[in-house]
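TASK: fixed-backbone design
INPUT:
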């Protein structure tokens, strides 16, 4: 079998494994020294460094005034100082998604830098890390392979949000056929030969792309090409077993597009593919009520039973869950935990509580950005059984 050498994926394109995310979600610090920082400011100019620095410093100062005055924890103070020292690094890329998860007491320091942006800035000091903004950012940076294709040559990239990484060059093919015979019908023979060579090239390209995507564990392919090229390439992609991988395409005007141009052209294709997946999810919810749940209470009960396969985090703004501070059970009415009898409880945002329970049982989480989430309702789940 033919193999294609694919370079290691940089950490920026593969920042956190599902296991690492689940581990962060499990952290519980009784002293409430778990710090979560999110920082992404797309509306600030790259040159507006001082204004951004002031915003960043304000987050740290507010946290210090609120927590250090009463707590006096050296670990908390060191973490806040370390985060403040990262301000120049964040300032250099304001239109990216930055996150820090820190807890000196538990020797945790995790920095995430994603190639996407949103108007988001906040610092939380609590018993647990805040996970949902990270999940939404990861959803917005779903990786895909992008192939720019012309007859006889192609360029391939791994794209994640605003980042694009060039992958190994694929073989080219000289599709021209020389003719020095003037016999009648010879031109038809040449045309037929060119067509066969073109078909063979696209067949080989489709197989190369399939192998490359399997090696990268990448499930989405976006193609940039002209309409006439697509009519010849698409059948070969289908024959190579890539029907489910094909996310869409865009019109290619120049094979020498820059990485920035490629990321920009890819973005609307990926967004539309995600939208179609969200629509399909809610169609299944409506069509199969026996294997679905809708609403916070119903979904939480299914999560408790371990029967959720896929969780959709919609717009849960303002919705909270009463959770036991001791065992993290939840309830609606009682003032006493029904699981352990504790009367120590706290309010937690419903989306955070749902996400933690889903991560704990290994359920898939769909977490659209907030404007998109608002279009699809509150929350829903498809069940394993």
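OUTPUT:
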């Amino acid at each position: 079998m033919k193999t294609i050498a694919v370079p290691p994926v940089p950490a920026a394109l593969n920042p956190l494994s599902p296991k690492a995310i689940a581990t962060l979600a499990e952290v519980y610090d009784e002293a409430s020294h778990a710090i979560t920082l999110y920082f992404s400011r797309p509306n600030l100019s790259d040159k507006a460094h001082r204004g951004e620095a002031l915003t960043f410093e304000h987050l740290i100062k507010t946290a210090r005034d609120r927590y250090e005055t009463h707590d006096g924890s050296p670990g908390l103070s060191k973490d806040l100082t370390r985060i403040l020292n990262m301000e120049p690094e964040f300032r250099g890329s304001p239109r990216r998604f930055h996150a820090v998860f820190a807890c000196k007491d538990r020797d945790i320091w995790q920095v995430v830098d994603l190639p996407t942006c949103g108007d988001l800035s906040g610092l939380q000091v609590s018993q647990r890390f805040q996970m949902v903004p990270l999940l939404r950012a990861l959803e917005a940076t779903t990786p895909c392979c992008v192939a720019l294709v012309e007859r006889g040559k192609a360029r391939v990239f791994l794209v994640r949000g605003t980042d694009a990484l060039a992958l190994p060059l694929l073989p080219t093919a000289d599709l021209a056929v020389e003719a020095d015979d003037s016999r009648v019908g010879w031109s038809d023979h040449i045309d037929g030969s060119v067509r066969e060579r073109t078909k063979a090239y696209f067949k080989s390209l489709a197989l190369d792309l399939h192998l490359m995507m399997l090696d990268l564990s990448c499930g989405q392919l976006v193609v940039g090409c002209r309409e006439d090229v697509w009519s010849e390439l698409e059948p070969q992609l289908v024959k190579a077993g890539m029907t489910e991988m094909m996310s869409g395409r865009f019109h290619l005007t120049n094979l020498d597009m820059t990485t920035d141009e490629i990321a920009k052209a890819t973005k609307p294709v990926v967004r539309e593919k995600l939208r179609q997946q969200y629509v399909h999810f809610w169609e299944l919810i409506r069509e199969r009520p026996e294997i679905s749940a809708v609403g916070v209470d119903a979904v939480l009960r299914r999560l408790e039973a371990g029967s959720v396969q896929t969780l959709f985090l919609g717009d849960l703004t303002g919705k909270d869950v009463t959770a036991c501070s001791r065992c993290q059970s939840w309830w609606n009415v009682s003032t006493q935990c029904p699981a352990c009898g504790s009367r120590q409880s706290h309010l937690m945002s419903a989306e955070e509580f749902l996400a933690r329970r889903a991560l704990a049982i290994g359920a898939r989480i769909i977490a659209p950005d907030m404007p998109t989430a608002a279009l699809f309702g509150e929350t829903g789940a498809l069940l394993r059984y």
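COMMENT: The first strand starts at residue 34 and ends at 40.
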